[in-house]
Write a structure and sequence with these properties.
Low-confidence stretches of chain A: none
Oligomer: homodimer
Radius of gyration of chain A: 19 Å
Strand order of the largest sheet of chain A: 1-2
Number of helices of chain A: 6
Order of helices and strands of chain A: HHHHEEHH
Helix content of chain A: 55-70%
Distance between the termini of chain A: 21 Å
Chain lengths: 143, 143
DNA sequence: CTAATATATTTGTATAAACAATTAATGTAA
DNA sequence: TTACATTAATTGTTTATACAAATATATTAG
């Protein structure tokens, strides 16, 4: 069966909705972090590092897992190091690489932020039940 | 029935997926516009103005309909005026307001861009059928 | 009519992001 | 070993965005 021509406007509606909701959600989450002087990018880096459970991560490990894998990762991490939330040392076996870890201070802050972000995320999705959420995730992954 | 506690990680997964997909889609669409020196914001303004079908729009009309309703709308429009894609005149009855219209050159460019963007949007959603797209839109609107 | 208030747009400034180029260290082939 | 290529991270620069303040015009209360 051939693709229905009316699928073009529907795909436009879907993409537009996705961009708008994505932006709105980003802003809603960011708002909770802002009071603590943390950006969404910085928050993601902290979460990635905590996920390492003590093992070090290189800058490119982090960069790959970020929403935007870009060349500004160094500067995002600079801010976290300045705030003593992340430790950065040169890798002894390959001195091109750096080894990143989350500090105790970072873990403590993250615990506070997580609570706020979890609440915000729960609030944003309060009109959806679990089945709907699972289906949304499943179908969003087809895009 | 009380809310299941496992809904918290599911909501996190959903929000994370939404942010990532929203970003990816934004970039994919932007890529098509970039070759023509147009940003997504500028493209949206052109579409909004075309939607007016000849009637003028004020800056705040445009700003309200943009993904980011912000104080930088003036500068986005500056670029479009520079490129002669949009006309800007002072409103005679209320000189605080400006009257914006899309030019013929703007309409011609938009016709080209629309084609590319429609194709990109169709391609992005090719793994979804109409029922799935409708449901996605419906459920995203609950967020 | 004048002062105060409200509204529409613009401008200034600091921060963030995109993109390209550079530096430093390592790996590899003659 | 030495030159060349590759990899990892950093830096420079331009453009975009967020947020606050300023400007210009219009409206309203007295």
């Amino acid at each position: 069966m051939s693709k229905n021509v009316t699928s073009i406007p529907l795909s436009r509606k879907l993409i537009t909705t996705l961009i708008k909701k994505g932006t709105a959600v980003t802003e809603a989450i960011s708002l909770n972090l802002k009071e603590h002087g943390i950006t969404l990018q910085q928050f993601n880096v902290l979460r990635i590092l905590r996920g390492r459970k003590g093992k070090v991560a290189s800058l490119q490990d982090v960069s790959k897992n970020m929403i935007h894998a870009n060349s500004n990762t160094t500067r995002v991490i600079d801010k976290l190091v300045d705030k003593k939330l992340v430790g950065r040392v040169q890798c002894p076996t390959d001195r091109r690489q750096i080894e990143l870890t989350i500090t105790d201070k970072g873990l403590k802050l993250l615990a506070i932020l997580d609570k706020k972000v979890d609440d915000a995320e729960a609030s944003l999705t309060e009109n959806l039940n679990e089945t709907e959420m699972s289906l949304l995730i499943h179908n969003l992954d087809k895009i």
